[in-house]
Prior knowledge:
- It is a single chain.
- By secondary structure, the protein is mainly alpha-helical.
- It has a single domain, classed as Multidrug-efflux Transporter Regulator, Chain: A, Domain 2, CATH 1.10.1660.10.
- A two-stranded antiparallel ribbon has the order 1-2.
- Helix 1 crosses helix 2 and helix 3 crosses helix 4.
- The longest helix has 26 residues.
- It comes from Thiohalophilus thiocyanatoxydans.
Amino acid sequence: MTEHQESVSGIILDESTTFSLDELSGACEVQVELIVALVEEGIIEPLESRSVEWQFPATQLPRARKAMHLYHDLELNLAGVALALELLDEVSELRSRLRQLESSF
């Protein structure tokens, strides 16, 4: 019997980790132009928007990946992606508040 070995790779992130525009597009497996469109739509934000070379905090990677999932898999346009992410953020915030209230009783 042969053993099947599976390889897993990942990126270790901390609060000081940043991504360049090219690195973020590579991590999301999309063209740079789509990342630029996400920034223009306000879906993700670079650390300094006026900088010649954008740097993105590590916290933007999961958000960008979630945006790509909505864009590709659910075929939402970028405005729809922005709205969906805003609503998901709001639901997450409300659930957090509910947990805090429940734990105080």
